[in-house]
Predict the structure of Myosin motor domain-containing protein.
Amino acid sequence: MMELKIQLIPTGEIILPPGKNGENFCHNCKVVASDGVRAMMESALTARDRVGVQDFVLLENYTSEAAFIENLRKRFKENLIYTYIGSVLVSVNPYKDLEIYTKNHMERYRGVNFYEVSPHIYAVADNSYRSMRTEGKDQCILISGESGAGKTEASKKILQYYAITCPASEQVQTVKDRLLQSNPVLEAFGNAKTLRNDNSSRFGKYMDIQFDFKGAPVGGHIINYLLEKSRVVHQNHGERNFHIFYQLIEGGEEDLLRRLGLERSPLQYQYLVKGNCPKVSSINDRSDWKVVRKALTVIGFNEDEVEELLNIIASVLHLGNVQYGGEEGSACITSDTQIKYLARLLGVNGSVLTEALTHKKIIAKGEELMSPLNLEQASSARDALSKAVYGRTFTWLVNKINASLAYTDDSHKHYSVIGLLDIYGFEVFQHNSFEQFCINYCNEKLQQLFIELTLKSEQEEYEAEGITWEPVQYFNNKIICDLVEEKFKGIISILDEECLRPGDASDFTFLEKLEDTVGGHPHFVTHKLADGKTRKVMGREEFRLLHYAGEVNYNVNGFLDKNNDLLFRNLKEVMVMSENNILTQCFDREELSDKKRPDTAATQFKASLAKLMEILMSKEPSYVRCIKPNDSKQAGRFDEVLIRHQVKYLGLMENLRVRRAGFAYRRRYEVFLQRYKSLCPDTWPNWQGKLADGVSTLVKHLGYKPEEYKLGRSKIFIRFPKTLFATEDALETRKHSLATKLQAGWKGYSQKSLFVGLKVSIAVQAWWRGILAKRRAQRRRQAANTIRRFVKGFIYRHKERCPENEYFLDYVRYSFLMNLRRNLPKNVLDKSWPTPPAALKEASEHLRKLCMQNMVWSYCKKISPEWKHQMEQKMIASELFKDKKDNYPQSVPKLFVSTRLNGEDINPKVLQALGSEKMKYAVPVTKYDRKGYKPRPRQLLLTGSSAIIAEEGKLKQRIDYGALKVTVVEFDHVIETLTKIAICAEKINNININQGSIKFTVGQGKEGIIDFTPGSELLVAKAKNGHLSVTAPRLNSR
Ligand SMILES: Nc1ncnc2c1ncn2[C@@H]1O[C@H](COP(=O)(O)OP(=O)(O)O)[C@@H](O)[C@H]1O
Ligand SMILES: [Mg+2]
């Protein structure tokens, strides 16, 4: 049996190892396995009693702020910092590191449905990413919340999520690295410790992450918004300047500091001591320096660029230390150490710089005059230069990073985008100035966008699904936005007017103008306009705005200057001449010739925000609403008052009401069915029909009442949370029983695989049997056809060839020929021959002859000359004796020899007597006397002309073949000898064979008779009747 393994994940959810084929057996189910297996399943939703609800829309008492906050508290105490309001993520800053941002966590959220896992920033990131991929629409993630609530952290987590989970290649890896490394650099130059946040972003940042068609991040682009430049020259108590100054001083190598003329102590620098807070326990400037230095290299800064950048940073510190003295009316610089450093570091002429720092160029009657500055003016000129240098360098830095992140592949121009907005949050300090005014205005705008988009999208969803929408009242902050930005009547317009108008405009005239113009506005109050109670908490130099997020008193001091953001012309001229490459890019020569006054800071900011709204509106938004649990940056402290305030101004209750006004819960049909299908026998384990029908079947089975839900086009909408909870409870119970089954199922898993294998083989067998049966049937059909044709052909066989009989005739011919081929005669003596059909009789005869000729021919071809000679002799013998002599057949197989006596057997005298005559055959014979038939041994020799009887050395008798008549002889090899005689004498036709008795003449009229009788033994003797009696054995005849 297979072992059941489980994987434990810190958040309490347990995932089963994937099955053989990689499938997951059970989502969201908790299985505790030991030897005895106890299985418990738990979904995030059903854990609501312990840790509240993971989605506020499921709160039964959704209008109660207390219930809302209680839910937040419960979860916060359990370190569950994330909760949804529908698709909006509410995040509470834990102020401690939680183990929820590991790679494992990223993997768990990757490609998983939003609601199937507990709320997380990764879920938002993944959801946006998937929407971008599947719907092809650009996305943006808007992170809002007040300073220190965790916006920047959230945006970093999102970026990390993409960097790790998105597909990568070598080139993409570089982009990912640069995207990630842009953060420490921008934070070093743009973040600072404030009272609210040790790492507070003092600039707004909108970052586009560009993805190619494969979903890999291939580029990025950053837009920065209004850096809080005033921080360069001044910090409130308990706050710091931008991190980079401290990092450089703490971390910079000795050599570097020497080159920059810096000492390793922030206390030496006027610009770093204002807040009286150079050291912060939560910040390690030295190690941060290393991180920033490395990041600069990753982004693509070379050594020279880094040096030039640091020259500027050091210059700002030196500028801060420029001290003025001299008379009241005309300031002069008391120490020239700084000027020396500045001249070198900025690459400018020292005396020109000195003059520019103490004089102002005025043009009177077409003439340029240098007018000395008083102490105050000189200080503010110096600070203006510092702010300008730092501010422009920051913008240059953003541009430089953008160049390094730019998507350079021209072949694939098209890319999708996910925008990340991490902008300064709503801020309220004891003293609030122009910067806070801008920051809070920005937050008003974002809130407006949030209201519009969430309401709009909600409404659109109902419309799209064909569900009636019930409008909900909510506070629309448009009225405040208008108060700030309206043309001519808005605060920014009035401020600009005061900045631009001739005459003695001051921060106070600006305040008065405000009172005159917007004094009656319900969201605007000044000390003069306020009631007694408010007046107590307001200064005379302040105006109060009733923001959506709360009341803020702004001190008008510095508003005009900051809005003007002016740098004396002669200081600009000095910077234009700088040899520092960065500064020459920052201070453009054309700027000097441009007579047109640049837009004021507030107007520029307003325009950039309008552009930002456009960018955001063109994209599909997701929201992260960050909440700060306490003001002391402490882990585990849940400050209810503070939180209630944020919940209120973030509009979370309204958000919830809007969400709930229609339906508390909505899911796409497939998601709903997938989750709850086990609750209805008709939908378990799988629903085959249309999804909507499946959901309808399911909810009817569950007993949903008609008013409890609506079925849209692609989603089910459930009005009350309790309906969903009842369903969840049912699922819980069901899962318990399923868990037992799961265990059993697991046990049977291998069996099941076996069974599946078996099923497959059964299917294969059945299939094969089917094939065989088909083949058999086909064969049967063919056979029947053949038989039918055959029978028909047989009936018509004697007819002319016609369609009915052609098959039969062909078949008969074919089978005869095939039979003949198998049974051809093996030799010439074999007379067998298959009987041909009528149609082939003639052909058969021809074939037979051909066959015979062929056999004869091939036989003859094989015959040797000796054998031919032998055969010729046998032929002659056949003609002579066949049917004439009884024992002839027995003689046939006996081969004839060329002679029976060789030269040495014949007396030489005989041979000599023969002379030239060639002896052709010789055989021993027995001569019987004519008279007494006395046997006498003799030799018979045959020559070309005569037959000779020899006795030892004498030629006893020579008979010419012509005269050869009857000679009674008895000798061995009769047939052979006679055949030879016939051949030699050429008397084949003259030889008569007489088997009975032969008469012959025995001289002078006397006749002799020879009687032949068959017998068992050869016997030649004179018989009593005077005849010569010859008894010859039949079988052994010679
Ligand atoms: N998810 C988080 N986990 C742990 N600490 C966090 C988290 N979010 C914020 N913090 C802490 O809060 C501080 C302020 O967060 P930050 O994102 O800079 O706030 P904001 O950008 O909203 O002003 C961070 O420096 C960090 O110490
Ligand atoms: Mg921030």
Observations:
- Residues 749-795 form the longest helix (47 residues).
- The pocket of adenosine-5'-diphosphate (ligand 1) is lined by residues 93-98, 145, 147-153, 197-201, 425, 626 (CB under 6 Å).
- The mean pLDDT is 84.
